[in-house]
Protein backbone atom coordinates (compact mmCIF):
# COMPACT_ATOMS: atom_id res chain seq x y z
CA UNK A 1 0.00 0.00 0.00
CA UNK A 2 1.03 3.60 -0.43
CA UNK A 3 1.76 5.85 2.51
CA UNK A 4 2.38 8.94 0.45
CA UNK A 5 2.24 9.84 -3.21
CA UNK A 6 3.55 12.79 -5.12
CA UNK A 7 1.04 15.56 -4.66
CA UNK A 8 -0.88 14.02 -1.78
CA UNK A 9 -0.97 16.81 0.80
CA UNK A 10 1.80 18.42 -1.21
CA UNK A 11 4.04 15.40 -0.74
CA UNK A 12 7.46 15.39 -2.39
CA UNK A 13 7.90 11.67 -1.83
CA UNK A 14 6.20 8.49 -2.99
CA UNK A 15 6.40 5.95 -0.21
CA UNK A 16 5.02 2.44 -0.26
CA UNK A 17 5.62 -1.07 0.93
CA UNK A 18 6.62 -3.57 -1.72
CA UNK A 19 7.83 -7.14 -1.64
CA UNK A 20 11.38 -5.78 -1.30
CA UNK A 21 10.85 -3.52 1.66
CA UNK A 22 9.77 0.04 2.18
CA UNK A 23 10.39 2.12 -0.89
CA UNK A 24 10.89 5.80 -1.53
CA UNK A 25 10.04 5.60 -5.21
CA UNK A 26 11.62 7.96 -7.68
CA UNK A 27 13.49 9.45 -4.76
CA UNK A 28 14.44 13.08 -5.37
CA UNK A 29 17.28 12.79 -2.86
CA UNK A 30 18.97 10.16 -4.99
CA UNK A 31 18.23 11.59 -8.40
CA UNK A 32 21.69 10.73 -9.63
CA UNK A 33 20.60 7.13 -9.87
CA UNK A 34 17.02 7.84 -10.94
CA UNK A 35 16.21 5.08 -8.55
CA UNK A 36 14.34 4.35 -5.45
CA UNK A 37 15.54 4.08 -1.90
CA UNK A 38 14.55 0.65 -0.62
CA UNK A 39 15.25 -0.94 2.73
CA UNK A 40 13.86 -3.49 5.14
CA UNK A 41 15.40 -1.54 8.03
CA UNK A 42 12.73 0.65 9.59
CA UNK A 43 15.22 2.93 11.34
CA UNK A 44 17.11 3.44 8.12
CA UNK A 45 13.90 4.22 6.28
CA UNK A 46 12.73 6.75 8.85
CA UNK A 47 16.19 8.31 8.78
CA UNK A 48 15.81 8.59 5.04
CA UNK A 49 12.50 10.41 5.43
CA UNK A 50 14.16 12.77 7.89
CA UNK A 51 16.80 13.46 5.25
CA UNK A 52 14.02 14.62 2.96
CA UNK A 53 12.59 16.90 5.63
CA UNK A 54 16.01 18.40 6.30
CA UNK A 55 16.35 19.05 2.58
CA UNK A 56 13.08 20.97 2.70
CA UNK A 57 10.99 18.30 1.02
CA UNK A 58 7.49 17.70 2.27
CA UNK A 59 6.93 14.29 3.84
CA UNK A 60 3.37 13.95 5.18
CA UNK A 61 3.21 13.38 8.93
CA UNK A 62 1.05 10.28 8.52
CA UNK A 63 3.80 8.23 6.92
CA UNK A 64 5.68 7.03 9.99
CA UNK A 65 2.61 6.31 12.16
CA UNK A 66 0.92 4.51 9.27
CA UNK A 67 3.97 2.33 8.70
CA UNK A 68 4.20 1.50 12.41
CA UNK A 69 0.51 0.69 12.39
CA UNK A 70 0.84 -1.75 9.52
CA UNK A 71 3.94 -3.23 11.06
CA UNK A 72 2.03 -4.00 14.25
CA UNK A 73 -1.14 -5.26 12.58
CA UNK A 74 0.06 -6.81 9.36
CA UNK A 75 3.82 -7.38 9.30
CA UNK A 76 5.21 -7.69 5.78
CA UNK A 77 6.47 -11.17 4.82
CA UNK A 78 10.01 -10.01 4.09
CA UNK A 79 10.42 -8.78 7.63
CA UNK A 80 10.68 -12.31 9.01
CA UNK A 81 13.37 -13.07 6.46
CA UNK A 82 15.27 -9.89 7.26
CA UNK A 83 15.29 -10.52 10.99
CA UNK A 84 13.04 -10.10 13.96
CA UNK A 85 11.10 -6.84 14.29
CA UNK A 86 13.08 -4.29 16.24
CA UNK A 87 16.29 -6.16 15.65
CA UNK A 88 19.36 -4.48 14.28
CA UNK A 89 20.58 -4.93 10.76
CA UNK A 90 24.35 -5.07 10.83
CA UNK A 91 24.46 -5.23 7.05
CA UNK A 92 22.80 -1.88 6.49
CA UNK A 93 24.21 0.27 3.75
CA UNK A 94 23.40 3.75 2.66
ZN1 LIG B 1 13.71 9.37 -0.75
How do the strands of the widest beta sheet line up side by side? 1-2-3-4
Q: Which percent range describes the beta-strand content?
A: 5-15%
Q: Residue-averaged pLDDT, rounded?
A: 86
Main sheet attributes: strand count, strand direction, barrel closure: 4 strands, antiparallel
Q: What overall geometry do the principal axes of the alpha carbons give?
A: globular
The assigned structural class equals: alpha+beta
Q: How far is the N terminus from the C terminus?
A: 24 Å
3D structure, described in words:
- With 94 residues, the chain is α+β, with helices and mostly antiparallel strands.
- It has one domain (2-82).
- Helices cover 32% and strands 15% of the residues.
- The chain is built from three helices and four strands, in the order ββββααα.
- It has helices at 42-54, 63-73, 77-82; strands spanning 2-4, 15-18, 21-24, 37-39.
- A four-stranded antiparallel sheet has the order 1-2-3-4, covered by helices on one side.
- A hairpin with a 2-residue loop joins β2 and β3.
- The radius of gyration is 13 Å and the shape is globular.
- Zinc ion (ZN) is lined by residues 13, 24, 27, 29, 37, 48, 52.
Brief sketch in words of this structure:
This protein has 94 residues and is an alpha+beta fold. It has helices at 42-54, 63-73, 77-82, and strands spanning 2-4, 15-18, 21-24, 37-39.
